[in-house]
């Protein structure tokens, strides 16, 4: 199942401005990858950020949102950001579903 992980932090807790956040940020990718099996993350689809918006968007293929929540705690994302986990669907699959409901 696809999930969007939307993480927003303040300018004060931004890795550009905060040394503690910077340390967490620089190890985040390694920690995510090393914890994928533990938290049933099947695949990282994408990891994007808007530096000036202070927002990250991670698209994950995972078993459930509760495991993603635990991953965000374990790797430190939740220590500097407010996190929203949203189930997502691929556009093409949604179109197929709508066409089949005729």
Describe the structure.
- With 102 residues, the protein is of the alpha+beta class.
- The protein has one domain: Dimeric alpha+beta barrel (Alpha-Beta Plaits).
- Strand 2 and strand 3 form a beta hairpin.
- The two termini are 25 Å apart.
- The mean pLDDT is 95.
The low-confidence parts are: none
Q: Can you tell me the number of structural domains? A: 1
For the secondary structure, the number of strands is 4
Ends distance? 25 Å
Just give the CATH class. Alpha Beta
CATH hierarchy: architecture: 2-Layer Sandwich
- What Rg is obtained from the alpha carbons, in whole angstroms? 15 Å
Report strand order across the widest sheet. 2-3-1-4
Helix proportion range: 40-55%
User: What proportion of the residues form beta strands (DSSP E)?
Assistant: 25-35%
Number of helices: 4
How is the biggest beta sheet arranged? 4 strands, antiparallel
Overall pLDDT metric: 95
The helix/strand class is alpha+beta
What's the overall geometry? globular
Tell me the CATH topology: Alpha-Beta Plaits
Order of helices and strands: EHEEHHEH
Give the CATH superfamily. Answer: Dimeric alpha+beta barrel
């Amino acid at each position: 199942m696809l999930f969007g992980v939307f993480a927003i932090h303040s300018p004060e807790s931004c890795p550009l401005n905060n040394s503690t956040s910077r340390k967490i940020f620089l190890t985040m990718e390694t920690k995510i990858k090393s914890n994928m099996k533990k938290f049933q993350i099947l695949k990282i689809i994408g990891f994007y950020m808007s530096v000036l918006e202070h927002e990250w968007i991670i698209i994950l293929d995972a078993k459930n949102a509760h495991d993603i929540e635990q991953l965000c705690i374990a790797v430190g994302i939740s220590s500097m950001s407010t996190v929203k986990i949203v189930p997502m669907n691929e556009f093409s699959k949604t179109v197929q579903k709508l066409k089949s409901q005729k």
